[in-house]
Amino acid sequence: MPTPSFITDIRAHIGHIPLWLPGVSAVVQNPAGEILLGRRADTGRWSLISGIPEPGEEPAAAIVREVFEETGVRVAPERITSVTVGPAVTYPNGDVAQYLNVTFACRPLTESATVNDDESLEVGWFPVDDHPPLDEVATLRLERALAGDTAAWFTQP
Hints:
Nucleoside Triphosphate Pyrophosphohydrolase, NUDIX_hydrolase_CS, NUDIX_hydrolase-like_dom_sf, hydrolase activity, NUDIX_hydrolase_dom, hydrolase
């Protein structure tokens, strides 16, 4: 799904100025220990599966929806692994956004991954120690999720 309509409606009024948004990310690990990644259409980079909750949508429901929309994989969120603020992002069209992100460790209910929308160029399962390069933010979210801590990680003031 492209930019949600509620965001394009806001952008029609505010232009490209920074917009504070919620975000969700998934660290999906299958029984073989592989992780699910997608190569984003907007940047061409590999990343965790992520997205923006719709207004009123629960974060866990949003990540289930996003993973399915982007990869065709059904998941069950098992725990929150981190709540973080990412750096501001400037998109090719000039829009600027910054995200408060909730990252979930998820268990796959199905494993057949396929590009399922226009947000991804490729999707696939990769060994934890041999996956495509990820940016610093995705790497940190992945490391925290795989650390096995039972409590979420929060940035301390």
